[in-house]
């Protein structure tokens, strides 16, 4: 035969030439295939069904890879620590050269995932390649992040922005209700949020990464004064507490304080025992521990903590009125106020260089002057209510008090704690549908400490509670006091107030008198400088008001009941 050709014969006995390479291909398949005797007959059977050999070998490869992944995970758990990590390191050394091969990459990543310390050289190679960095497990990323704060910051920053946006979306939601508001979700529910869970996973048990996140939160809080970062600081710590990450919880000096406060927030009340316990934590902070004081201040600046403390204070005041007792005679209540005062003090302590402790303000005035002032408002309400229930012949002509004590206005303007408690008292009387008390104290809200009365959280709660007074919106006096005397005083300089007013009108516009509604629509018209959110809300309100306008009445002539006289021709016309 000629070189390179083999001989054969067909059915007619003629010579049949076959390529010489057909034999090396068969050898290649035999030598590199799955060498199992049972497959000698199974593979031709698959051929008959049109199943490609590639598909068969790929399925075998995938199965072997899964077994290998299981084995790697098993090695990470069996034997002595040194031996198991030595095996994994050897396996990584042999397989890392194939890390960019998609079919082998999962195995290499699995080996790296189970190594507590991946060699620095390999970590740098992973970090330098975007695809490898994206593919590696979070356990490997933690080892990269702990020595690269900038890269970790790039990962965390979008999550922090998302968290703030989620909080703001709740505060500006068009669904206004006094039953469901910003503070309705329980602490445990809030900790199941996407951002908190992702941050918890990214941190794991790594104290260094936890400290980095806290530093990010401190810096952002200092820069923006946004209290939602304080909420995240507390939620993150309690999320790690839920997972029993003792490596972090035991080294965070705020852990027990946050745990105790979290229990109070969950129960929506601070009792005397817990008030003393919280005060004990604060008293235990030694001089020179400014960092701890700063972190405690952040935790107490959490709106959920403020909400719980303020509501507990109002409830405590009501109890004192019933007991004919003054606040200065109740020590646990003083402890509660000191806790709130510490939060206020913390707000002023934060500086660009860190946290500096200043001497506290005069808390005695709060207890001896401001709280009794609030109690006098409660007494006024009780007196007026009893008077209204007296028979007509015994009832004296006693109108509801309308004057605001000058001291009350001054406290709201100059003292943050007094302002917080005063605002929550106004929310309390609004929720009780106490229109008289609300209109009496409303003018004091125009000028408050740091414009707290125009903060998003207060306006969110106020608009929700005002739905309980929806019938009062038909009255000119009520709308003038609320809108002209309060809301519109700040709309032009504070866009958030503009948004909250539009939210309220979207919900209650059908209750407002048409003439007043028309004037409000003109007053709330967005300017060129207004943001898109304000314009969108205003357009929604305009559309709703347009739909409410009655359609033009069709002018129809009333048919005459008299029959027309017949035309009689005149003599001239004849």
From TrEMBL:
One of its GO terms (cellular component) is NELF complex. It comes from the Eukaryota. GO terms for biological process: negative regulation of transcription elongation by RNA polymerase II. Residues 548-574 are annotated as: Disordered. InterPro entries: COBRA1. It holds the Pfam family COBRA1. PANTHER family: NEGATIVE ELONGATION FACTOR B, NEGATIVE ELONGATION FACTOR COMPLEX MEMBER B. This is Negative elongation factor complex member B. It comes from Zonotrichia albicollis.
